[in-house]
Design a protein that fits this description.
The complex is a heterodimer of chains A (118) and B (517). Chain A has one domain: Helix Hairpins (Orthogonal Bundle), CATH 1.10.287. In chain A, helix 1 runs antiparallel to helix 2 and helix 2 packs antiparallel against helix 3. In chain A, 65% of the residues lie in helices and 0% in strands. Chain B is an all-alpha fold and 517 residues long. Chain B starts with 6 loop residues before the first helix and ends in a 12-residue tail after the last helix. A two-stranded antiparallel sheet of chain B has the order 1-2. Classes of the chains: A mainly alpha (118), B mainly alpha (517).
Chain lengths: 118, 517
């Protein structure tokens, strides 16, 4: 199971970073989403992987799973969900306004600017 | 247990929804409540700072849960200083926003402003790393709204870059937190400080990785090279009062680095040995150099100021990366200076914009109010470039002095002094083009319509900028007491035992006896 979880995190992260480096907003947002999925699984695994163990104290149970990472993941999911919604709205606004969904500065802007386009 | 510590978080948190729900159509009422809220915030912050000034560390356990299990807020000298600085800065920024009518150019400025303050205050006060992440997100999501306040294509495009960069930063933050939790089993800063010391020397891979990731995250916030790319266009395109408020946001990153890397991953630790000197120092020197070169190369006034912010953050980070008590003293003094100077400059950029089509650094005919604006620009530029007699000079001296006896002294002195020269040249070129050459510009045509129909900026705007500059002057005049207090702060930072004891030994619900680890 360790291999499965670790490779899932790795593949999600790699895909996320690849998409993050694209030029247009849509793949970049998809990449961010993939990265947040990866980090959610990663956080989940940070409390050690154990199957079938309860997170809450109970009589007659010896092995427990750590409940804290689950709370952390919950917070992280809510926040990343909200943030993704915000970035979609802003990107949509920028796209509809300028009819161009490149993430970087447009060439004419870059030549007007001061080299911050890098 | 005093409840005042949570007031800087709760007050804006209650005020913002009130403004959205009850006063959304009445800009006048919004302004009154927003200013009143910030004034109350200043008095609470001053009270907290006074309480902490004698070295007392006050603890607030949320829900009365004891420390490693519950979330705690901690008010020590450093956090109360930053809270007070934020509150004071917020007042002047708010006055400017009202005076220049920026708050009326889009919806919900005041509500977002209060949420932003809530996030910043929380980030300064919290004693828990995950809670720090949550407050980072609160301040970021408010800043996304403020960043694109009043719209416009250029602003929205810059906003997309800003949001995406910060989302990536948040994700990295979560990776770092996960790695720390997996290694140490806690996210409470005081608890971590103890546990990281117990990690066996042979098994430090995970915690090293976490320390580097965390440093990366804070470096993104602090816009340290090579993670600064988000700053120039977002600060230049953001509305002026928002950019001025953002002056404190880069300092949140610097604050987090100071806090985490003095208490948890202190330089004397095997686990993180070399991290500060090998990685942080060159990056800081590079951002100082690139920032000031950017000042010289900028063709727009707003980008010029944005690069000056990068440069001054580089200066702060140079001082931090030495990680000695004297250098942290210098870093804190320069942080206060750089916040006020950067905020004043962003507001002045907006004053310059009045009556001009754009902020290209080319001479244009004189507009009303240019004389006063140019005088303010002159003062703020002196402060930012670090020329005597203002506090930038004192701050730079402190940094140079702190670096004098270290091995990197030659590098630091060379970069700081040469970048100062470049910065002076950049600012004087901009100032003389904008204000001096304007005098010699011929009025285009006798027959042509004079473009000078725009009124001079409102008095309140000048009051706000003047207030920030007056604070800078006060920061210079009282440099002696100020540095003495900063020295007290760094003394407290380098002796974290009282902090750790206060956090971990205060009883609450679920407190365990000391041997129950």
């Amino acid at each position: 199971m360790e291999l499965l979880v670790a490779s899932a995190i790795g593949i999600l992260t790699a895909g996320g970073i690849y998409l993050m480096l694209r030029l247009r907003t849509f793949p970049v947002i998809l990449g961010i989403s993939l990265l947040t999925y990866a980090v959610n699984v990663f956080l989940f695994a940070s409390g050690r992987l154990s199957v079938g163990a309860p997170p809450i104290l109970r009589d007659g149970v010896e092995v427990y799973t750590d409940p804290l990472p689950q709370a952390l993941v919950l917070t992280a999911i809510v926040i990343s969900f909200g943030m993704t919604a915000v970035v979609v709205m802003i990107a949509l606004g920028a796209y509809l306004g300028s009819d161009d969904d490149h993430v970087d500065d447009a060439p004419d802007e870059a030549s007007k600017g001061t080299g911050d386009a890098a | 247990m005093t409840h005042w510590i949570i007031a800087p978080v709760v007050l804006p948190a209650l005020l913002a929804p009130f403004i959205v729900l009850a006063a959304r159509y009445h800009i006048g009422i919004q302004r009154v409540f927003s200013v009143a809220g910030v004034l109350a915030l200043i008095s609470v912050a001053a009270g907290l700072a006074w309480q902490a000034s004698d070295g007392t560390i006050t603890l607030y356990q949320l829900g009365d849960w004891a420390a490693p299990f519950g979330i705690v807020l901690v008010a020590d000298r450093l956090s109360t200083l930053m809270v007070l600085l934020t509150a004071v800065l917020a007042l002047f920024v708010l006055l400017y926003a009202i005076g220049s009518e920026w708050d009326n150019r889009g919806r919900h400025f005041h509500a977002l402003f209060q949420f932003q303050l809530m996030g910043i205050m929380g980030a300064f006060l919290t004693g828990d790393l995950f809670n720090l992440f949550v407050f980072f997100e609160v301040l970021l999501i408010a800043s996304y709204g403020l960043m694109i306040h009043s719209g416009g294509n250029a602003r929205l495009r810059a906003g997309v870059q800003y949001v995406l960069f910060n989302l990536l930063g948040s994700t990295l933050f979560l990776f770092a937190l996960g790695a720390i939790y997996a290694e140490a089993g806690t996210l409470n800063m005081a608890d971590l400080a103890q546990r990281v010391r117990l990690i066996d020397g042979a098994e430090t891979v995970g915690i090293r990785l976490a320390a580097v990731l965390l440093l990366l995250v804070f470096a993104i916030k602090a816009a340290v090279l090579p993670l600064h790319f988000w700053l120039p266009s977002s600060y230049a395109e953001a509305p002026a009062p928002v950019a001025a408020l953002f002056a404190i946001m880069t300092k949140v990153g610097a604050y987090a680095i100071i806090r985490v890397y003095t208490m948890i991953f202190s330089p004397d630790l095997d686990v993180t040995a070399g991290l500060h000197t090998t990685w942080l120092m060159p990056a800081a020197l590079a951002s100082l150099a690139i920032g000031m070169i950017g000042v010289l190369a900028a063709r727009h006034l707003d980008r010029l100021v944005a690069f000056a912010v990068i440069g001054s953050m580089g200066m702060v980070m140079v001082a931090i990366s030495l990680f000695t008590p004297t250098s942290i003293t210098a870093a804190l003094y320069y942080t206060v200076h750089s916040t006020l100077a950067a905020a004043a400059l962003f507001l002045i950029v907006d004053l310059v914009r009045t009556g001009r089509a754009d902020l290209n650094l080319i001479a244009q005919p004189v507009v009303p109010g240019a004389a006063l604006t140019s005088a303010l620009f002159f003062l703020a530029a002196i402060a930012m470039a670090g020329l005597p007699p203002l506090s930038g000079f004192v701050g730079k001296l402190l940094v140079l002095d702190a670096a004098f006896s270290t091995s990197a002294a030659a590098w630091i002195w060379a970069v700081v002094l040469s970048s100062s020269l470049i910065c002076v040249v950049g600012f004087s070129r901009a100032g003389s083009t904008l204000f001096w050459k304007a005098k010699s510009m011929p009025v285009a045509d006798e027959a042509a319509e004079p473009p000078a129909t725009t009124p001079a900026p409102a008095t309140l705007s000048y009051v706000a900028v003047g207030g920030l500059l007056a604070l800078l002057v006060a920061h210079t005049v009282f440099a002696g007491p100020a540095t003495a207090y900063m020295a007290d702060i760094s003394d407290q930072l380098f002796n974290p035992e009282p902090y750790i004891e206060t956090v971990l030994d205060t009883p609450g619900k679920l407190s365990t006896p000391k041997e129950g680890y």
